[in-house]
Amino acid sequence: PCSPPAERTEKVLGEFCRCYQEQYGVALFNSVRYEIEGNGGPQAQLLHRKVPLDDHVIFSGNLFQYIEENKKWRNRFCVVPHNYGLVLYENKLAYERDLQPRVLVNSAGYKVLTSVDQYLELVSSSLPGVTPKSGHSPILKCPTDFPLILWHPYARHYYFCVMTGKEQERWKAVFQACVRHCNNGISEDSRVEAPAFTDAVRMYRQAKEQYGTWDMLCGNQTQVLSNLVMEELLPELRSAIGPRLKGKAQERQRAWIQISDTVYRMVYEQTKAQYGAVVAQCEQERPQLESTIRTDMDQIITSKEHVASKIRAFVLPKAEICVRNHVQPYISSILEALMAPTSQGFAEVRELFFKEVTDMNMNVVNEGGLEKLPEYMEKLSHLAFHPVKMQSCYEKMDQLKLEGLQQRFDVSSTSVFKQRAQIHMRQQMDDAVFTLETLLHQELGKLQGKDDLCKSIQRILERVLKKYDYDSSTVRKKFFREALLQITIPFLLKKLAPTCKGELSKFQELIFEDFASFILVENTYEEVVLQSVMKDIMQAVKEAAVQRKHNLYRDSVVMHNSDPNLHLLGEGIAIDWAEEQPQPESDRRRRAKQVVSVIQDDDGALPYELGAVGLPQPRLPAPDGLEEIREALAKESAEAAAEPGQRLPNGTGTSDEPAAIVQASPEVAQGTAAVPAASPAAQAPAPAPAPGMICQQPSDKETGEEVTPPSSERSPLQPLATTESREGVQTEF
């Protein structure tokens, strides 16, 4: 029998929260111990940007969205702000007038699909036994050959399409960047709550005999927990409700998607409240726990070592045999499979950074020296967050294949490792850019003329590349070690469970009651298992570095005090290149809101883009094929052409010049090393937006989508009409 969702959710969360409270004490102890003992790891050579680039837009452009309520395709203007939310407006004019968006989407846990057949296959597998008969209309028909679908195993799906393959590739890169960023929703800055949460998730799943990587460890804590509940709840719902669904196969599939989405929203709200209460309780108890830890640190460490030695004597012989027979022979194969695509991706990051800085240097020489430098540097500062430019780096990880190893070690998919490596690539790119920015900014007062500036940029570039090579090696070696542990440890725990896990309870009596909050037998057992394989993993990575495979440095190679004062520079006030430019204050405000994606559509304007900008949106029909939608688009284009030309805040014209999907900067659009002076039209600054205009962005805490009627308009200073309860997943209405 299927228990009600609320009841089932409360049961799962009750068990999880007990795990979390146990892990909280251990994580707090580890955090305080780390603070006291420190870490002897190598110091990064590149600087890390401490003040994030919050005031910018990642990408914007037009695409079609399928509206399920009226089964029609509608033109939408999509904006991706710095927090990687997808914000959909009625049209570009609505965005520029600061009207409320139609939809806000947090894409954590979603998959980006570019094939309707692939989508239909996933839909069919979610409700087994329900497949449309041949000749019947499928659940979704796309009017173009270039769909983009956001699919989630539990939440609602989003359907988009564009007109060309080139657009599809761009938007796929943008959507994947959003998914990658939102999946990484548990902040690593929290040294207590984050490890306590992830360890609690792992312990909870292992108690259910679910070992190995988990694809749905995506998003913030509430989203992850909702996925954990749905993983158990959905099969029950499917068995109870599936047979009762009526109608044609497509209707039953649609009904099931809506039911799943509705339940997911209910689970999300309940999870948010229940988990929030437990976190608040732990935070309330933290001062007392921390006081005990600091007072009794030495005794706790001694007690833990005593327990660990007893567990080690019992477990280690069995673990070493298991490692020797089932893990050791495969470590080098796993490492090689990880090293090749990862190192190619980091090499591509280096190449892209070199190319962009060299192109900028050539443009400075060709176009105006110091006067143009702030403009170029402001664009360069966003390079790491440019999803289309960075795609050439990210796509190297698509080559990662574990093949037979994946089944042997119970790795459900390689996506966890791909996304982790891609996040490291983005961070290393931003660190390299920020280091170059900082060093160059320090030199500005000493430079005389173009030639001096050009030589200085080249010299700083060479210094930064050396630092990048060192940091890249350090980051990759750490990533390889962590990935090998993530693959092998769950496998070992599963192998050892029948002979070891049942005996662990006898070690509980060795722990003093006063220290029971900080020493857990299960965690200590896992540390012993980790030690059994860590030596082999460290040795494999070390040998790869000694052989100089994939440009890895040996651990003995340390860059001592190459720039002793560099890290002091990184502690200063963040550089604002816009402030370096002689321009009116209104222009500075405009630049902060300007779209930074520098992409020029070589094919000219899309037929629907002209109609989308500055004109009322005609209601498109719900066409079954491409011809109908093309006719509707042509009509829009004709209406747009009749309107007088105007220039929009991000520099795109409605009729005076071809409108690119995203406004491009002159030097990058042409993609050459030595770029001649841009045309006056390309260089002309766009007018500032109306006073008080604010770039609408979703909250960083936004975890779903919020949809508002298109007619709602508000004062520029009035915040979005949201409530505290709307921070979660929302229903479109």
UniProtKB/TrEMBL annotation:
<feature type="domain" description="PH">
    <location>
        <begin position="56"/>
        <end position="180"/>
    </location>
</feature>
<dbReference type="Pfam" id="PF26086">
    <property type="entry name" value="Niban2"/>
</dbReference>
<dbReference type="InterPro" id="IPR011993">
    <property type="entry name" value="PH-like_dom_sf"/>
</dbReference>
<feature type="compositionally biased region" description="Low complexity">
    <location>
        <begin position="673"/>
        <end position="685"/>
    </location>
</feature>
<protein>
    <submittedName>
        <fullName>NIBL1 protein</fullName>
    </submittedName>
</protein>
<feature type="compositionally biased region" description="Basic and acidic residues">
    <location>
        <begin position="724"/>
        <end position="733"/>
    </location>
</feature>
<dbReference type="Pfam" id="PF26089">
    <property type="entry name" value="PH_Niban2"/>
</dbReference>
<dbReference type="InterPro" id="IPR001849">
    <property type="entry name" value="PH_domain"/>
</dbReference>
<comment type="similarity">
    <text>Belongs to the Niban family.</text>
</comment>
<feature type="region of interest" description="Disordered">
    <location>
        <begin position="636"/>
        <end position="733"/>
    </location>
</feature>
<dbReference type="InterPro" id="IPR026088">
    <property type="entry name" value="Niban-like"/>
</dbReference>
<dbReference type="InterPro" id="IPR059060">
    <property type="entry name" value="Niban_1/2/3_dom"/>
</dbReference>
<feature type="compositionally biased region" description="Polar residues">
    <location>
        <begin position="709"/>
        <end position="723"/>
    </location>
</feature>
